[in-house]
Amino acid sequence: MIEESCNIDDRGSSCCSQQPQKEEINFKDHWDKAYTNSPEEKLGWYETDLSPTLSLVSKAGLKKSARILNVGAGNTTLIDELLAIGYSDLIATDLSEVALNKLENRVGERKVECIVDDLTKPNSLYKISPVDLWIDRAVLHFFTEKKDQDVYFNLLKSSVKINGFVLLSEFNLNGAKVCSGLPVHRYSKDMIANKLGADFELIDSFNHTYIMPSGDERPYVYTLFKKRVSCLL
Ligand SMILES: C[S@@+](CC[C@H](N)C(=O)[O-])C[C@H]1O[C@@H](n2cnc3c(N)ncnc32)[C@H](O)[C@@H]1O
Known about the structure:
Layout: H1 27-37, H2 51-60, E1 67-71, H3 78-85, E2 89-94, H4 97-107, E3 113-116, E4 131-137, H5 146-159, E5 160-171, E6 178-179, E7 182-183, H6 189-196, E8 200-211, E9 217-227
Parallel strand pairs: 1-2, 1-4, 2-3, 4-5
Antiparallel strand pairs: 5-9, 6-7, 8-9
Bound molecules: S-adenosylmethionine.
């Protein structure tokens, strides 16, 4: 049973029945409103069980001093969990300043570096020093145009250190076609591997069905890759 929206506050609105015209959407406003208008725990991506992500973080086996970048972090409690485990060099980035303000207010501004930026038109993100782990849950699948996907993957490839890791969890091929009123591009592990290219070795992957606060199911694919020395070197 797959419904077409992943924000329960969208139910009954036009997002469930028809795909929005992308040209009309101001994405920053869209996401700022989502975080302003709904309690955190009612958002269609809110997690209480972070074990799928944390199992892959553990598999990467990084030192606690590792530099970890969570893209499209929103107000995720993954940051709280990573801090609790002992990671201290954390960066959270998102298009939504509202979301990052909430995150910073909860965990403390000295505990996480927050960067407001657009993954499809990055500015500040090009200037950060390379990271040991790039984490994305439920962000890449919103980039439905190849040009936006290309910008995203080019940024990722230049941001992750050699021997660093990439943890991507996106709607899988059985997943919903729309989330939060926006169309999504669904992935298999092979599709993600293809986008990453030969320099990234698949370490692990699995499907996981996320249960939304509404009780609806959202099937995801979780993947962990390791960046090897470039084949071109
Ligand atoms: C479904 S939410 C997932 C949030 C978080 N990763 C989590 O798992 O709780 C998608 C997030 O992607 C962010 N986002 C959407 N488009 C973006 C873009 N172009 N650049 C950066 N962040 C974006 C949204 O603001 C939102 O926080």
